[in-house]
Amino acid sequence: MLQENSIKLSLSYAIASRVKDYFMMMKFTLTFMVVFSCVVAYLLVPGVEFDLIKVLLLFAGGILVSGSANIINQILEKETDKLMARTAPRPLPAGRLSISEAAVVSVVTGLAGILILGFGFNWLSAMVSLVSLVLYGFVYTPWKKWNSLAVLVGAVPGALAEP
């Protein structure tokens, strides 16, 4: 009985730790604030009425797409993150998650977010989110190591209210 309870607690702890690491990879707090501003902007559009389902869909889609871009950022910066005290405890440099697991989470969250935005709103918003994800993850992230003009590229996803 005691051993069974111990196994259940260990499994619960392992699951909670993994979920916490996923949230850390997605930079959830930062992502939430970015998406919150996007939702507020959406609600300020003339003629848009408050619809709880639409707001929840926008939150979900935005968090998933932005989170995916942040995971890509952390995959590409794993080695650099190992060198800095602030970023060394992140799941990838600390070795708690593998790059392949992070890549799978990034693809799943990115696709899910794009599909939510496409079906929940329109495909233009989904494609703008995809462009934002690609610019942040695959253009801004590598460029910022060698050229300060990367800030201009990084401003585009910021202006699009994603990553």
List keywords for this structure.
mainly alpha; 163 residues
Question: How would you portray this structure in words?
Answer:
The chain is mainly alpha-helical and 163 residues long. Helix content is 76%, strand content 0%. It contains seven helices and no strands. The radius of gyration is 18 Å and the shape is flat. The model has no long low-confidence stretch (mean pLDDT 89).
Number of helices: 7
Main sheet: strands, sense, barrel: none
- How helix-rich are the residues, as a percent range? over 70%
H/E topology pattern:
HHHHHHH
Which geometry do the CA atoms define? flat
Q: What are the segments in which pLDDT stays under 50 over at least 5 consecutive residues?
A: none
Using DSSP, what is the number of strands? 0
- First-residue to last-residue Cα separation: 47 Å
Mean pLDDT: 89
What percent of residues are in strands? Answer: under 5%
Class from helix and strand fractions: mainly alpha
What is Rg? Answer: 18 Å
